[in-house]
Amino acid sequence: MPIVFHINTGSNTPIYQQITEQVRLAVTTGGLAVGDQLPSVRVLAEELVVNPNTVARAYGELMREGLLESRAGRGVFITPKRKVFSRDEGWRRLEPLLGALIGEAMTLDFTPAELRAAFEAKMHQWKHPKGGDRNE
Amino acid sequence: MNEETVIQACGLTKYFGARAAVYELNLEVPRGCVFAFLGRNGSGKTTTIRMLMGLLAPTRGAGRILGHDIRTLTPEVRARIGYLTEEHQLYGWMQVRECGAFQARFFPRWNDRIYRGVLGHFGLQPAAKVKDLSRGERAGLCLALTLAPEPELLVLDDPGLGLDPVARRALIESMIYLTRRSDRTIFFSSHHLSDVERVADYLAVFDRSVLRACCPLDTFRARVRQLRLRFPGPPPALPKIPGLLQAVRMENELRVTIVPHGGAAEKILQALSPREMEPVPLTLEDAFISYLGERGEKTFILSELEAQA
After folding, report:
1. Min distance B207 CA to chain A CA atoms (Å)
2. Predicted complex ipTM
């Protein structure tokens, strides 16, 4: 299934970052699988009506993260995930997101049990390449 | 001047009577980029463009376009530049098709595929009379006339002015299409920051006759920062802060928008011992408005050089 990008101008997230975030999300939720091809910089830029350099910057960042690779003359593909961040760095990036999630749930008057249930339900979207949970 | 610089202004100044419409403008536009020229109405954008096009003599200073002195542009150089004016000057009695045939005679090159392609993009019929066209259609026609000679430099003076969202999107799509050739440069002025966000690599911000920022768009966004400082009680008086754009005082909070230079501003703010200090993400429009809004200091300028430092 090809990825469908949604670009918002006037957002406090720059356009290149909207693209990287949507690719990362699609990869974690299984919308994009290893080996899937993304449109070329030129094609995506014209489709989204954004400057090609913006798309190139997004792809460049995803390549540095090891999520994408460019195969000469063939295009841009999702790579088998290799580890680019140390475990500590990974946690450092994840921690604020967890904090924000819990904070938001509190403000919106959810109970811890409700959040846990919603979290578990959402986790089913995650198709881990090694298959399933570490605890199981 | 670097061969890769297509527009260069050096101390360019224009007085109308005692009033400076453009004051000491220094500007360089690299080849192959999409360069947005921003500023409020009456800030001197059109005057600058008219000087660069050799249509208005500067009071002082110099400029070069495609490597040629703007005071002595030959028809050969002008033919390499596509210039779209704000007013969309056209002959009302002509048909759309005749406009193309007429314009083509003035240029050594004329790509009729591009002409018809842009017309089609704006839904224009070749047999339509110019006087019957809507504002958006006139804009589409002018754009087609400007693009068909395949200029290597495109100068568009507020091309989105008065266009409906559909026509504006067609305009932006045409601009993106043009970047297929990586040696083509687009220099355009606009008030539509959402369009600027989509197409521009670089931006220059003009304020009351003076250039106030000139850098890559991402740099501008990253450099204009807003910090929220929370205090247990009423916030203290604000000391002098380098690069301050705006400060808004609330009950227990200060919101400070700055263009930081090497952490000095943050240090001063931290010394106010706020309970909490956190960055607030800004949209391009927020950044632009706080950059041009009222405030105390206005001497600093963002340059590409600083961005690299």
Report:
1. 22
2. 0.80
Are B46 and B70 in contact by the 8 Å Cβ rule? The answer is: no
For chains A and B, what is the number of CB pairs under 8 angstroms? Answer: 48
- Closest-CA residue of chain B to A57: B218
DSSP codes joined into one string, B136-200: HHHHHHHHHHHHTT--SEEEESSTTTT--HHHHHHHHHHHHHHTTSTT-EEEEE-S-HHHHHHH-
- What residues 23-42 of chain A have any CB closer than 8 A to a CB of chain B? 42
Q: Measured between CA atoms, how close is A11 to chain B, in angstroms?
A: 5
Q: Are B6 and B153 in contact (CB under 8 A)?
A: yes
Using CA atoms, how far apart are residues B208 and B44, in angstroms rounded to an integer?
A: 7
pLDDT in tens, chain B (309 residues): 456 899 999 999 999 999 999 999 999 999 999 999 998 888 899 999 999 999 999 999 999 999 999 999 999 999 999 999 887 789 999 999 999 999 999 999 999 999 999 999 889 999 999 999 998 899 999 999 999 999 999 999 999 888 888 889 989 998 998 888 888 999 999 999 999 999 999 999 988 888 888 899 988 988 888 999 999 988 888 888 888 888 888 888 888 888 887 788 888 988 888 998 998 889 999 889 888 876 643 333 444 444 444
Fold of domain A15-78: Arc Repressor Mutant, subunit A (1.10.10)
Pick the closest to residue B153 from B185, B111, B181 (CA basis): B185
For B249, residues 6+ apart whose C-beta sits below 8 A from its C-beta are: B235, B238
Kindly list the residues from chain A whose CB atom is less than 8 angstroms away from the CB atom of residue B176.
Answer: 45-46, 49-52
> Residue A131 has which token pair?
């298959």
The architecture that CATH gives domain B5-220 is 3-Layer(aba) Sandwich (3.40)
Residue identified by tokens 């928008």 is B257
Query: Which of B174, B178, B188, B198 is best to mutate for the A interface (most A CBs within 10 A)?
Result: B198
Bridging pattern class, strands B210-216 and B202-207 = antiparallel
Contacts of residue B284 in chain A, CB cutoff 8 Å?
9-10
For chain B, give every domain's residue range: 5-220, 224-308
Q: How many CB atoms lie within 10 A of CB A54?
A: 27
Report domain extents, chain A: 15-78, 87-129
- Set of chain A residues whose Cβ sits within 8 Å of the Cβ of B179: 45, 51-52
| pTM for the structure as a whole | 0.81
Residue A50 touches chain B, beta carbons under 8 Å: yes
Whole-angstrom distance, CA of residue B34 vs CA of residue A50 = 11
